Amino acid sequence: MKRLFICILMLYGLNVLGFGKINVVTTYGYIADITQRIGGVEVSVSRLAAGSPDPHFITPKPSFIAKLRNADLLIINGGQLEIGWLPPVLLQANNPVINPGRPGFLSLMALVTPLDVHDDVSRAQGDVHPEGNPHIQLDPYHIPVFAQAVMEKLCQLAPGKCEIFRENYTTFEKRWLEKTALWEQKLSPLKGTKVVEYHKLYDYFFHRFKIEVAGTLEPLPGIPPTSRHIAGIIDLIKKQNITVIIQDVYHSSQTARFIAGKTGVKVVIIPHDIGAVKEVTDIFSLFDEIVGRLTGS
Ligand SMILES: [Zn+2]
After folding, report:
1. Is residue 14 included in any domain, yes or no?
2. Ligand 1 mean position to 217 CA, how many Å?
3. Which residue has the higher pLDDT, 13 or 95?
4. Minimal CB count within 10 Å: which of 120, 182, 279, 295?
5. How far apart are CA 193 and CA 104, in angstroms?
6. What is the pTM of this model?
7. Residue 49: closest CA among 76, 88, 80
8. What is the CATH number of the domain that holds 259?
């Protein structure tokens, strides 16, 4: 017993002195990958949601509670994307260190300028996120902003390791900006073109690269397509010479294919997070794959 007590004391001491890893839990895969790149060997990172399901509707598992209970830091997307599934597990985990407003909590949404902010939200507008469109990871220019915030947060939690985090950030940012320039170059022929997407999932991406989202298959966010709305979209595609419907991996592509049959439009399935398709294993391949699928390269 005495030996066990000494062991616990030593482990606690090592942690306080900065030898232990920082235990980070993230909600989505893209946040986990960014955190791992900045934290390196100094962090242990896990994510709650797997890549392919609908990010709005994650089914909580008992393992979520265990992970949150042991976390030193929780990093979420924010913008109410997790509102339907995270609060109950966070409550059950009963780990005050990672609650909103505490040093062990970081929400990424607050770091960017949101699209589609609605002052007056009612259910009649569908499943609208009042703080704005929460699918913020799909603008590549947001990624270094998130990486920097993660670096600053890790520095705050482990000041003794801050130099390492800073170095990791600098390396990451340099490589990311080089890749972003390449993606931008590849996408330049698409500038000014119009697309239709299923859900307002890729708006940040299209907004950044000046591709216009002319319509969505959902009549309102979260509301499945109706026949009347589909007829309107077919009309829009014909009138505006739209050649592509962007489909995510977690909604059925049946409607998109039906419209394709009527109009000759192409259906392109693109990933939204790490693991959404097998080619996307990290934050770099996420954008490589999106750009590749959109440009056919
Ligand atoms: Zn959404």
Report:
1. no
2. 13
3. 95
4. 120
5. 43
6. 0.91
7. 76
8. 3.40.50.1980
| HSE of 281, CA atoms in CB hemisphere, 13 A | 2
pLDDT at 116: 87
Which of 140, 162, 181 is the endpoint of a domain?
A: 181
Q: State whether 173 and 192 are in the same domain.
A: no
To the nearest whole number, what is the mean pLDDT of the chain? 92
Given a contact cutoff of 8 angstroms between Cβ atoms, the answer to whether 33 and 274 are in contact is yes
Distance 271 CA to ligand 1 centre (A): 14
Containing structural domain, residue 138: 20-181
Is-contact 71 24, C-beta < 8 A?
Answer: yes
Distance from Cα 114 to the centre of ligand 1, integer Å: 13
- How much distance in Å is there from the Cα of 135 to the middle of ligand 1? 6
Q: What was the pLDDT predicted at 204?
A: 98
* Strand boundaries in the chain, DSSP class E: 22-26, 43-47, 73-76, 105-107, 194-197, 212-216, 244-247, 266-269
Alpha carbon of 220 to ligand 1 centroid (Å):
10
Both tokens of 45, joined, read 């990172």
How far is ligand 1, taken at its centre, from the CA of residue 155, in Å? 32
CA of 43 to the centre of ligand 1 (A): 30
Q: Residue 294: its pLDDT value, please? A: 98
Distance, CA 240 to ligand 1 centroid (Å)? 25
On whether both 63 and 161 belong to a single domain, the answer is: yes
Among 117-126, 155-164, 171-180, 246-255, the minimum mean pLDDT is found in: 117-126
Q: How confident is the model at residue 18 (pLDDT cuts 50, 70, 90)?
A: low
Q: In which band, very low, low, confident or very high, does the pLDDT at 231 lie, cut at 50, 70 and 90?
A: very high
Torsion of CA 125, 128, 132, 137, to 10 degrees: -140
Q: Which of 45-54, 107-116, 140-149, 196-205 has the lowest mean pLDDT?
A: 45-54
Rounded mean pLDDT, 77-86 = 95
